[in-house]
Every structure is written in C-alpha cells, then in structure tokens.
Amino acid sequence: MMVDVVKVDSGQLARLTISREARRNALSAGVVEGLIDGIKTLSEDAAVRAIVLTGEGERAFCAGGDLGDQLPDGGMLGMHKARGRFAELILAMRRSPKPLIARVNGHALGGGFGLVLACDLAVAADHATFGTPEVKVGLFPMMISALIQRSLSQKHAMELMLTGDRIDALRARELGVVNEVVAGADLDDAVGALAERVAAHSPAVVGLGRQAYYATEDMSLEQALRTLHSQLTINTLAEDAAEGISAFLEKRDPRWKGQ
C-alpha cells in the first residue's frame, strides 16, 4: 500500500501515512487516490476525533509531485484529469469534519507543502524544510498557490514561488506555516499532545465549526457574518452545547455525545 491508515489511542486518533520512503513520499496518482480514500473513510468514522497526516521515515514528509509517474491511460488529456485529483484531495481535506494535523517529519516541498497548508494544524521536526522548488524545473506551483495565497502574505508567498528557495522549520513557524517546531525525537509526543487537546472537545461542535470556517473564508464580511449567524444558531441546538454549558455551571467535565 502507498498510504497506510492506522487508528491509535482507542480509535480517537488516526494516522494517515504516505508510504513511499524510497521516493521521498512523492505524490503519485496512487498516493493521491489513497489519501482521498483514507480521508473519506476516516471522516465517516464516528470514533475518530482527529487525523494525523505524515510521511514514512525521517527524511521527507512529502517531496511533492512524482515527476517520474507514468502517463495514465488517455494520453495528455488523461494526465490533465489525473492532476485534477490533487484538487479533489485538497477539497476532501477541507470538507472533512475531522481536524487534520500535519506531522512534518522531513522535507515538505511542492505538493507536500500544499498538504501541510491544507491541514488545520502542523507540528514540524526541526530538520524539516519547506518550499516550492517547481520553478527550478520550469514549472510553477499552480494548484498549491491557491493554498499559499490563503496562508501567507503576498510578498512571502511570491518570494517562495518565484525563487524556489527552501525555508527551514523555524522560518516556517515565523510565517505561520506550522504551529510548533520540536526535535525529531520529540515529534510524536508533540503531535500526540496537540491531538489530545483537540480531541478533548465535542467532535460534533468541532466539525461544525471547522466546516463553517472554511466555507466562509472567501465570502465578503457581510456574507460571512450572515452565514455564521445561522451556524451559531445550529450550534446552540446541539446536545453537546447544552451539555457543555451544564458542565460549566456544575463545575464538572463535560460528557460529549457527539451530537
């Protein structure tokens, strides 16, 4: 398998791993399909509270698109259609009700950089690097620029895409690409602690809020406020909202039902 799905911590946390260490976990057509299937499957699993996305080994999280991937059936039009599956992967990540955490165990380049940006949270090993080196081989990071422009300032975004230079993990944290940078030996503990903090809350409310956030990111201020007003009302009708308020008033831990 090019993508491994493993559930840990009594099934509340799931790990999605790109298993192509020899190819620096590059994004072949098979990897993209595996990630789409894995995210959709885990998104429908009521027991899962958070999904961790990572790469096999310690060298690379994901080195981007596999330039050696074979031409699919259908010639160049088939290749065009296959590239569109990466867009479906990003959309599947956005539509999932489950929070996604990038466990950046090594280089995150090109499409791999895009995967980090598509996750809600990211923790990086201190030896990880980030960048969009496509311009150096005569390509522009077209598809992931949609994520870059939503995550970085224009000047920083264009510097990365126009130069093809890499940045280290500390610089990535300064730019808001990752939340935390730790020693490689501490990566699993840091990711686990962050996932535990996320999983402690109502999965129903977290899912509702996450999807509302991404649904309104391209709206005008008035459109966003009108939409979020409706979403707030829906939120207040949830059983977990009533439970959370009761628990607060009674000074006890809430017992979430996921409803």
Automatic annotation (TrEMBL):
<dbReference type="GO" id="GO:0003824">
    <property type="term" value="F:catalytic activity"/>
</dbReference>
<dbReference type="InterPro" id="IPR014748">
    <property type="entry name" value="Enoyl-CoA_hydra_C"/>
</dbReference>
<protein>
    <submittedName>
        <fullName>Crotonase</fullName>
    </submittedName>
</protein>
<dbReference type="InterPro" id="IPR018376">
    <property type="entry name" value="Enoyl-CoA_hyd/isom_CS"/>
</dbReference>
<dbReference type="Pfam" id="PF00378">
    <property type="entry name" value="ECH_1"/>
</dbReference>
<dbReference type="InterPro" id="IPR051683">
    <property type="entry name" value="Enoyl-CoA_Hydratase/Isomerase"/>
</dbReference>
<dbReference type="InterPro" id="IPR001753">
    <property type="entry name" value="Enoyl-CoA_hydra/iso"/>
</dbReference>
<comment type="similarity">
    <text>Belongs to the enoyl-CoA hydratase/isomerase family.</text>
</comment>
<dbReference type="InterPro" id="IPR029045">
    <property type="entry name" value="ClpP/crotonase-like_dom_sf"/>
</dbReference>
